[in-house]
Design a protein that fits this description.
Length: 422
């Protein structure tokens, strides 16, 4: 037990949705009346699960629900999960920015956190002044900051701009300096959110190396949140997977990453999509986007499939049907155009009920992509949906040399097959 430096016990966080943050006057009066009689807060018994994709029936939502874990001295705990899973809420509770609705956190050391770009920085102050301000916020004395100042500036690579107000810094420069302050002022527990994604490749490599030194060489503890599975595998000794505010998996980092990737299916029911054009003779009913298997998330360099389940009202045959789809990035730029007219597939007299677009080696970088679909039957538009659905791609080793593909290396060149299935 003496090795445990942080322990979370039944931690839950409830938020009220809408414009009001904590509740109406009637809610507050009800809480006061229950507390006066020594009873439990009545609003702890209500609230929906933290699933951002559903409407829900309550104004209250549990961003976190009954989270339990402990971290030992020198461990690096990775916290992974989809957007909205509760990762940032958990880190804010651990950083004492907000308090849990129920449960408690026990610490055995000083905590430093880096949750957003420029956390604790004042834009009107210079880089040097912000080093001292941020150090003071983290509980360091001026003498302690003086002793580490040169190392902080050298590591950040911002020496030329150290006497310039940080409002003129880029987001990358700001996160460099903020990370250097948090890392070099020797907290017992360092909490880091996805901010390292802002930095360039060189800085990310330095930052990961520094975190490894902190944990292995200096025996301090790191809590690391990232969507970069390669960084999680490289840095962390253990991992926690969150989903809809609950713990789905805790344990070995390799097993945790595999669990996260295999459980992240990309299914879209476009049957309810209202903004679609065409005569409706052949409609897209359901879509599955996945890796080689349906329970594996798309990853750069690995097999990739898009499965379209069709509602073929007129029993159209393959020879009469053409399906095109456009892949756009999150800025709306076209990455690729795929079409059944580019390949020979199936028998001409087969009725089309399912189409699978298969790419043997996915050549897309990590990120979010949007699909626009276009189906014609006998050259008449049957179903056209702008931005019908989106899917996520995880980083991967495209060239098989152990290195992740950078944006500049990836080109939208696709060799794909279309499989027609009855």
């Amino acid at each position: 037990m003496s090795d445990v430096i942080l322990k979370a016990e039944n931690v839950s966080k409830q938020y009220r949705l809408g414009l009001v943050g904590t509740g109406s006057i009637s809610d507050d009066l009800k809480r006061w009346w229950y507390a006066l009689r020594g009873k439990e807060d009545p609003f702890l018994k209500i609230g929906d699960t933290n699933d951002r994709a559903t409407k829900g029936k309550s104004d209250y939502v549990w961003a976190l629900k009954d989270i339990n874990f402990e971290v030992k001295k020198g461990e690096v705990l990775g916290i992974i999960g989809k957007n909205g899973a509760g990762k940032s809420t958990l880190l804010k509770i651990l950083s004492k920015i907000t308090s849990p609705t129920t449960g408690n956190i026990k610490f055995n050391g000083r905590v430093a956190s880096l949750l957003e770009v420029g956390t604790g920085f004042h834009p009107e102050l210079t880089g040097k002044e912000n080093v001292y301000l941020n150090g003071a916020i983290l509980g360091m004395t001026k003498a302690e900051i003086d002793a580490k100042y040169d190392e902080i500036v050298a590591f950040s690579g911002c020496e030329r701009y150290i006497d310039t107000p940080t409002k003129r810094y880029s987001s990358g420069m700001t996160v460099r300096l903020a990370f250097a302050v948090a890392a070099f002022l020797e907290p017992d527990i360092l909490i880091i959110d996805e901010v390292l994604a802002v930095g360039d490749a060189e800085f990310q490599k330095k930052a990961i190396g520094k975190m490894q030194d902190i944990s292995k060489g200096e025996g301090r503890t790191v809590l690391f949140v990232s969507h970069n599975m390669a960084a999680v595998k490289n840095l962390c000794t253990r991992a926690l997977v969150l989903k809809n505010g609950k713990t789905e998996f805790e344990g070995d980092v390799e097993e945790a990453v595999t669990f996260y990737l295999e459980g992240s299916e990309n299914d879209s029911n476009v049957n309810i999509f209202l903004d679609r054009k065409g005569n409706g003779k052949l409609l897209i009913k359901e879509v599955k986007v996945h890796g080689e298997k349906e329970d594996v998330k798309p990853q750069t360099g690995l097999p990739f499939k898009m499965t379209f389940i069709l509602d073929n009202i007129v029993q159209a045959k393959f020879i009469d049907v053409q399906m095109d789809l456009r892949i756009d990035d999150n800025l709306g730029q076209r990455i690729a155009w795929l079409s059944t007219s580019l390949v020979n597939c199936g028998s001409d007299d087969e009725v089309v009920n399912k189409l699978i677009f298969k790419i043997d080696k996915l050549n897309l970088n990590k990120g979010t992509y949007y699909i626009t679909t276009h189906i014609t039957v006998n050259n008449e538009i049957s179903d056209w949906i702008q931005n019908a659905f989106s899917f996520e791609v995880e980083e991967g080793d495209y060239y098989g040399n152990g290195a992740l593909v950078s944006t500049s290396q990836s080109k939208a060149l696709f060799n794909f097959k279309v499989l027609n299935e009855l």
